[in-house]
Amino acid sequence: EEAIFLRKKITLLRAFSLLIGSMVGSGIFISPKGVLKNSGSVGFSLVVWFGCGLLSMFGALCYAELGTRITKSGGHYIYILETLGPLPSFLFLWAEFFAIRPANSAVVSLAFGRYMLEPFFAPCAAPVPAVKLVSLLGYYTVLTLNSWSVTWSARLQTALSFVKLLALSLIIVPGMMLLAQGHTENFQNAFDRQSLVLDKLPLAFYAGMFAYSGWFQASFVREELVRPERNIPLAVIISVITVIVGYMLTNVSYYTVLATQDVLASPAVAVSFVQRAFKSLISVVPVLVALSCFGTMNGGIFTFSRTLFVASREGQWPPLFSMIHIRRHTPLPAVMLMFPLVTTMVCIGDIYHLMNFFSFSRWLFIGLATLGLIVHRHRHPELHSPFKVPLFVPVSFTIICLFTVAMSFYSDPVNISIGCTMVLSGFPVYYLIIHKQMSDRCRNMFSSFLFFPTLSDYLTHKLQLLLEVVQQEIKTY
Question: Where do transmembrane segments lie in this chain (predicted)?
Answer without folding.
Answer: 12-30, 42-64, 76-100, 120-142, 162-183, 203-221, 233-257, 277-297, 332-354, 360-377, 389-410, 416-434
